[in-house]
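User: Good morning. I'm curious how flavin mononucleotide would be positioned relative to this chain. Could you predict the structure with it bound?
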Amino acid sequence: MIALPPLTGVERFLGEQELIVSKTDRRGLLTYCNDVFRRISGFTDDELIGRPHSLVRHPEMPRTVFHLLWETIESGREIFAYVVNRSKNGDHYWVLAHVTPTFDRNGTIIGFHSNRRCPDRSAIEKIRPLYAQLRDAEQRAGSKEEALRAGRALLAKTLAELQMEFDAFSFSLVEPDREPAIAGERR
Ligand SMILES: Cc1cc2nc3c(=O)[nH]c(=O)nc-3n(C[C@H](O)[C@H](O)[C@H](O)COP(=O)(O)O)c2cc1C
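Assistant: Good morning! Here's the predicted structure, ligand included:
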């Protein structure tokens, strides 16, 4: 395990044309990371390859979202989700992640693949309150299992009210005339 410093509160931004790419095995251990991933996360290939993808996990991310992510990809489907990750030095960066299973020629899942791009700023501002509510529901629960039950129930209720699936909800947050995100760093 790498001992990581505390979060800095400094946000990093992906360029408009940049894609973060990673691949994992079936258990979520990293097998490939592109140079954009290495640059924005600040980790080297030696630190990334063979490690769990949760190396870049940020505490603002609800467990519920990763539970849904794994449930979806393990059932052979793809998912789009907004994710905030941490960098090695404690900075953070938001992405819109597309995560898909990789199949062999027999249709068996042999790993997973994720491409992430710069998210719409207004989408981040809209997703944050939902993620905060999910984390609150998780934290009020007594155990990990109850936390997931509470988070999944709240997410299901929110989506039912909106009459949307999770992916459609993610896309609904994007405004038609989207402002380009600012490349570089800012606090
Ligand atoms: C292809 C792929 C990409 C993933 N990308 C991320 C990511 O960018 N950030 C993240 O925190 N978890 C990501 N995950 C989910 C992690 O495997 C893990 O479920 C999550 O970090 C929660 O970890 P924890 O349960 O140990 O807290 C990804 C998983 C897969 C299979």
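The longest helix spans residues 121-140. Confidence is low (pLDDT under 50) at residues 180-187.
Let me know if you'd like a different ligand tried.
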